[in-house]
């Protein structure tokens, strides 16, 4: 439960229709096993105490009384367990029968939630037996010693984790145009549970999956869906036990159908709360819900859900290809509009033979093709300096020529020597002035060359460099339109690789693959034996780590300790814990110290959920202190 994680389980017992005693025993066994495996929220199927398929037996007092006895017995048998469980049963009140979910914790029946929408079409005949549930809670008697509130407006609130608020809906409820879950979430429920008995028909599982993930997405909640399985009557329909756990649109766990499999995953309640705070259109309200307290032990939740090491990069090859094509299209369309609006005759780029300038050139080529402009109007400029190696120089030339752009070479060496002489900089002193002087000379050349050719300078720097401030102020930091400004370095690689795989040009693909194999470097220091002497990731840390930190800090607003915990899981076996912590501290120091560079960024298209434009996603003062964040890391 620490840092917001709560483990949930969907348990599907192998029930016997109308045998409440056997079912109660199997329900208790399932709850006990789930709790022993760390689950704190445990959800079972609709009407699981009796079975969903009892038909007219639901009108028998014998079955209803047995179901109530079974509920009391389940509460008693699980009173030593540290969890909250939801079980389904038919419940009679005031002369009517309700399809209900009972919430149980530590021996107490906390409340009864009746089903709102009763399907009475196709194979369903619930209105034959059940009555639509009341909204406003009423107090109902369970037995002579126990009573509980009953109604749909019940909210189960965890005393030891106040952010954990659970509400229930039952099967058909969330298939309707206005599911009760909407009202539950707007009244504070961060986790919705659904006790279901959804039978199988061809293709229904896909639609069911979309409903679960979709509701968790637009309600910014965790969703635990437990559906009836083997053991129900198959007289006319078959149930598969298709259970799911989702969070904010992401499917965390899914049961294999026709197996009665128990599934587990952790729901990040703190993240859901932060998402709701961030989205100003998620407007909370107070509809007078009855809030019922329960308590759980505060302890470390073992995280079993997959933590992606590359959160910006889709895992599946097909999804990754789709994402890359989409991003290239967004970049190119943004540049297309800017070029046409400004009536630029040319686009000017500095091409180094590295990844970022390569991507910028590929995007520019695509924009020119969309505008039906000749590629020769793309002015690709190589500017060899003191650190340029043969490999990057040759790749830059090959790339430009193969894409049929206009090639210009302007050495910066002599201009930089003159500049260093003017400001009294020793050419043998390889300090920050030595490096930045070269970067600014290149930018001056590009800006003036753009003026000369009636064009604009296309920026090449990426999101990861902007986050770390790994750019020379008024050097490569500046351009007239920055096409890569919201593309993280880990994604840049895949975009270039995708282009290589799909361009249909073996020679161009070969050049791109060699660029991909070249170490990332600004090449501002003299080579060592003809090879790159200055490797960026040796200086600021691995970009895959920094992109991980960036995503979880800006997109999810996670605190440093939580990011560190997740990074250890994501990069287990790749980086030692002390290495991760070292670079996480570096990330925070640089992120805060370098905001002044991000405060005056040129325009550029947003392509993903994380961006640092001062006009868009990141409104951060340049003088903010990192002390609080670094202090938290120092305590680890």
Structural account:
This protein has 636 residues and is an alpha/beta fold. The chain folds into two domains: 2-294, Nitrilase/N-carbamoyl-D-aminoacid amidohydrolase, CATH 3.60.110.10; 317-634, 3-Layer(aba) Sandwich (Rossmann fold). The chain is built from 19 helices and 20 strands. The strands form four sheets. It has a seven-stranded mixed β-sheet with strand order 13-12-11-10-9-8-15, with helices on one face. It has a six-stranded mixed β-sheet with strand order 5-4-3-2-1-14. The chain has a five-stranded parallel β-sheet with strand order 18-17-16-19-20. Helix 1 links the parallel strand 1 (5-10) and strand 2. The longest helix has 26 residues, at 317-342. The two termini are 18 Å apart. The relative contact order is 0.08.
Give the topology.
Elements: E1 5-10, H1 20-36, E2 41-43, H2 61-77, E3 84-93, E4 96-105, E5 108-114, E6 138-143, E7 146-150, E8 154-158, E9 165-170, H3 180-186, E10 191-196, H4 204-218, E11 222-227, E12 244-247, E13 250-254, E14 263-268, H5 269-278, E15 290-294, H6 317-342, E16 346-350, H7 355-370, E17 378-382, H8 390-402, E18 406-409, H9 413-423, H10 432-453, E19 455-459, H11 463-468, E20 481-482, H12 489-502, H13 506-516, H14 536-540, H15 543-555, H16 560-570, H17 577-593, H18 595-598, H19 627-634
Parallel strand pairs: 1-2, 2-3, 8-15, 9-10, 10-11, 16-17, 16-19, 17-18, 19-20
Antiparallel strand pairs: 1-14, 3-4, 4-5, 6-7, 8-9, 11-12, 12-13
Helix pairs in contact: 1-2, 6-7, 6-12, 7-12, 8-13, 9-10, 12-13, 15-16, 15-17, 16-17
């Amino acid at each position: 439960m620490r840092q917001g994680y709560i483990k949930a389980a969907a348990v599907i017992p192998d029930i016997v229709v109308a045998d409440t005693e056997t079912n109660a025993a199997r329900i208790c066994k399932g709850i006990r096993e789930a709790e022993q495996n760390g689950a704190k929220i445990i959800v079972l199927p609709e009407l699981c105490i009796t079975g969903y398929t009892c038909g007219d037996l639901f009108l028998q007092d014998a079955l209803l009384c047995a179901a109530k006895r079974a509920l009391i017995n389940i509460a008693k048998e699980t009173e030593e367990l540290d969890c909250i469980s939801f079980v389904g049963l038919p419940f009679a009140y005031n002369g009517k029968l309700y399809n209900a979910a009972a919430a149980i914790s530590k021996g107490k029946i906390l409340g009864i939630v009746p089903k709102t929408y009763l399907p009475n079409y196709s194979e369903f005949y619930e209105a034959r037996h059940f009555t639509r549930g009341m909204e406003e809670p009423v107090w109902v008697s369970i037995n002579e010693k126990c009573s509980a509130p009953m109604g749909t407006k019940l909210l189960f609130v965890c005393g030891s984790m106040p952010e954990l608020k659970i509400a229930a809906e039952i099967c058909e409820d969330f298939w309707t145009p206005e599911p009760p879950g909407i009202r539950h979430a707007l009244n504070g429920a961060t986790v919705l549970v659904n006790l279901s008995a959804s039978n199988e028909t061809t293709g229904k599982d896909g639609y069911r999956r979309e409903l679960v993930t979709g509701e968790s997405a637009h309600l910014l909640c965790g969703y635990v869906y437990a559906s009836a399985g083997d053991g129900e009557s198959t007289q006319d329909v078959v149930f598969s036990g298709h259970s799911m756990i989702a969070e904010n649109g992401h499917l965390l766990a899914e049961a294999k159908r026709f197996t009665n499999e128990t599934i587990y995953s952790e729901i990040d309640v703190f993240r859901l709360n932060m998402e709701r705070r961030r989205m100003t259109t998620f407007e909370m309200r107070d509809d007078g819900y009855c809030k019922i307290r329960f308590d759980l032990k505060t302890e470390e939740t073992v995280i079993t859900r997959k933590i992606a090491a590359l959160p910006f990069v889709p895992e599946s090859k097909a999804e990754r290809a789709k994402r890359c094509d989409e991003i290239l299209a967004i970049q190119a369309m943004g540049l297309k509009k800017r070029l046409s609006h400004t009536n630029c005759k040319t686009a000017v780029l500095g091409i180094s033979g590295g990844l970022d300038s390569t991507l910028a050139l590929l995007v520019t080529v695509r924009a020119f093709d969309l505008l039906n402009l000749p590629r020769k109007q793309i002015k690709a400029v190589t500017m060899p300096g003191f650190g340029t190696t043969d490999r990057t120089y040759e790749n830059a030339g090959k790339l430009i020529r193969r894409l049929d752009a206009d090639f210009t070479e302007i050495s910066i060496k002599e201009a930089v020597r003159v500049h260093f002489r003017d400001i009294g900089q020793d050419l043998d002193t390889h300090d920050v002035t030595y490096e930045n002087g070269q970067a600014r000379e290149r930018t001056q050349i590009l800006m003036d060359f753009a003026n000369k050719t009636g064009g604009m300078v296309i920026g090449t720097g990426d999101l990861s460099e902007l986050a770390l401030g790994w750019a020379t102020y008024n050097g490569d930091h500046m351009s007239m339109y920055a096409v890569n400004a919201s593309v993280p370095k880990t994604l840049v690689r895949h975009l270039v690789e995708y282009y290589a795989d799909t361009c249909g040009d073996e020679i161009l693909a070969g050049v791109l693959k060699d660029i991909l194999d070249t170490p990332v470097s600004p090449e501002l220091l003299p080579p060592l034996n003809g090879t790159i002497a200055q490797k960026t990731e040796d200086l600021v840390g691995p970009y895959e780590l920094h992109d991980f930190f960036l995503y979880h800090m800006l997109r999810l607003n996670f605190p440093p300790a939580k990011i560190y915990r997740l990074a250890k899981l994501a990069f287990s076996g790749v980086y030692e814990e002390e290495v991760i912590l070292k670079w996480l501290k570096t990330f925070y120091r640089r992120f805060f110290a370098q905001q002044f560079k991000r405060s005056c960024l040129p325009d550029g298209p947003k392509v993903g959920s994380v961006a640092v434009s001062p006009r868009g996603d990141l409104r951060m003062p340049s003088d903010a202190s990192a002390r609080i964040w670094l202090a938290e890391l120092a305590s680890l």
